[in-house]
Write the structure tokens for this entry.
Amino acid sequence: MAPPDRAPDETASPALAVSTVIFSLMPSDTTGRTALHIPLVRRIREPYLGLWALPGGPLGLDEDLSDAARRHLFATTALSPTYLEQLYAFGARGRSLAERVVSIVYWALVARPTAGAASPAAGLVTGDPNVCWFDADHLPALAFDHAAIVEYALWRLRTKMEYSRIAHAFIGETFTLTQLREVYEAVLSRELDPANFRRTVEASDAVVPTGEFLTGTPHRPPRLYRYDTRRDLADPSPLASETFLALPTSTSAERLA
């Protein structure tokens, strides 16, 4: 890529790229509690040499957009998504400094990576020190407009937690309500009242009891639940930016508190 002080070629056609915001639940280095993490790639050339960026790259000529997102995701993390959705197209003039690049951005959920990959110093399961996991709410300075992209993806995920069974992508086939609440707390980045959460979940009919109980606990074994698979995991249609910008900061998720 050309150095950042080079003026863009106004006659050139925009380049098309695919980037992915990849979410996983991992223990936080600062609190030790489970928190949302995303992998970032350290740039090894200009522009933004040394800064962190979202994984991604060019779209292949014979490649579907979602296939390109999965390819870049796997190349970065050696993982496959449990959920993948197109987020938005980002193509503002000057976003890439040296050339006009339009990025089709996806957001994805993946199962928890192997142990030892949470720290930025540890790298990923691929062992690449230039590809590291970071707490999604405490990111370093990011290249391009990637900070705004991550903010939008976080909003999309947290909003979707309120009306879909997207949490299922982070949890096993069966679970206790405590385990489910811990997933919600990690994604929403705040504590939820256990009694209110139980009442809200049970009233939603999103989960059903399996008739089984979790074994090996020192106290009364908790009941196991599963999601009602007759309901879709989520509606994968992207939202318009006007909807995102118009949404009030306080949403119906507060009912869970």
User: Anything to note?
Assistant: Confidence is low (pLDDT under 50) at residues 1-5, 115-123, 238-246, 249-257. Residues 164 and 234 are 5 Å apart (CA to CA). Helices lie at 65-77, 146-163, 177-188, 194-204, 241-246.
